[in-house]
Each structure stands twice: as C-alpha cells, then as structure tokens.
Amino acid sequence: xxxxxxxxxxxxxxxxxxxxxxxxxxxxxxxxxxxxxxxxxxxxxxxxxxxxxxxxxxxxxxxxxxxxxxxxxxxxxxxxxxxxxxxxxxxxxxxxxxxxxxxxxxxxxxxxxxxxxxxxxxxxxxxxxxxxxxxxxxxxxxxxxxxxxxxxxxxxxxxxxxxxxxxxxxxxxxxxxxxxxxxxxxxxxxxxxxxxxxxxxxxxxxxxxxxxxxxxxxxxxxxxxxxxxxxxxxxxxxxxxxxxxxxxxxxxxxxxxxxxxxxxxxx
Length: 267
Ligand code: 3PG
Description:
By secondary structure, the chain is of the alpha/beta class. The protein has a single domain (about 65-265), classed as TIM Barrel. It is about 40% helix and about 15% strand. The protein is built from twelve helices and eleven strands. The strands form three sheets. Strands 7-6-5-4-3-11 form a six-stranded parallel beta sheet, with helices on both faces. Helix 6 links the parallel strand 6 and strand 7. Mean pLDDT is about 85; it is low at about 1-55. The structure holds 3-phosphoglyceric acid. 3-phosphoglyceric acid binds next to strand 11.
C-alpha cells in the first residue's frame, strides 16, 4: 500500500448509512489500516442476552457442546429429566414443541431446576415463541429460518438458533445479524463432509449441527472448527423418558459429556 506523500488535512469517509464523518488528518492512516484489516464479510453482532449464571448464549453453547433435544409426552417427567441432565454435568436442554406438554414441561423445569440452560425447540410460529418465553425458555431453536419468529426473538432479546441447510439460508441468517445457526438435518444433508463444504465460505458463522447425531458421530462433528455445539435426541430418547428411566438418561448424558470433553478440534 503506497502512503501518499501529502496527507489531506481532513478526509471525509462515507459510512454505510450514507452519512459521512470527518476524520482528522492525523488519524487517517490508522483508519485506513483498520478498514483494510476488517474481514471481507463482517457479520452484524447478534444480541447476546445473559442467561443462567450470567453466561451469554455462545459461551453457554461452547461450555456444554451438546444440546439434548427433548420430545416430552408428559410434563410430569420434566423435572426428573432435567435433574438427570444436571447430575450428568450436561445442564442444558431444548424442549421441543412437538408435543402438547412442551410449555408445561418448560415451566416446570424453569421453576424447579433453574441451573439448567433451558431452551424451546421446534419453534415454528411467533405464538409458540411467545408461549415458550412466557413459560421460562431462555433461548429458541427452530428447524427453519422464519423471518417473523427471528424478528420476534430479537425484539424480545432472546437468542435464537434458526435452522439452515443451504448457502442461501446461511447468507440470509447473516444478513439478519445471526452468526450462530443450526445445521438441520445434518446427517441426512450429507454429514460432516457437507458441513465442512457449506461452512467453508462462511468463516464467521458458527454451527450447531442437529439431526442424526449420535455418540458415534459426535466426535467428528465437534472436531470441526466452526461447530460450537451439536444438538440431538440420542441421550434423551422419548421412550426412555416416558418409562421414567432417568438413570439411563443420566448415563447417556454422562457419556456425551465425556465425548465432548475428549473431542479434538481440527485446526
Ligand atoms: C430436532 O428437532 O432438532 C431434531 O429432530 C433432532 O434430531 P435427532 O432426533 O436426529 O437427534
């Protein structure tokens, strides 16, 4: 980069908002360097409200690395399920709006197990998002990217993981200021090779692959640099919850925690 022999006394730089700002002559060189260092495609910052224990959403995901995706038939099983996850060292769950018991289950966990990072999943409508937050959910997850649901979540300051599966959808999420997305359905879409291929152009995006994740393929997903966490139902199977076998859930969650702790990120 050639430094001009004569610096202008004042340089007026255009801003994206079409307003302009006067840069004092002495700051011009610094400004130019900083502008060059900015990433080619910069993501707007997603609001990161603080959740349980003061952790923001991305830090929470980085800490747990696994989101148990729960389909619950009866709210009566919600609290023992949540306690089994906390006991296993996996204090996080996404209660999906796939059953009529979802809102009551969220409310029961929020009241009795506040140390669990509690989200609502399969949030397809604004009404479900509203119900989930009113019941005590701290974050929202969806299989798709619905503009109204995203707008509502942002208005309410709730973190949201929208589902994406194509470069265009990732680009849309970025344009909405969302830099963490759920890749869904991860395995059916092509698994780890597909994830790596689709993530490559979007270096500032972090992914939560979900759909077909198991104890077997979890290490390979967590090894991908841009994967912040994985979601899955394998350690919280609905028939095991319905049978009240919370020892089995604790064991499966403990195994997931051990796998996550041992996962090596590829650099
Ligand atoms: C979801 O709702 O996120 C997925 O259905 C979870 O997928 P899985 O059951 O294959 O883990």
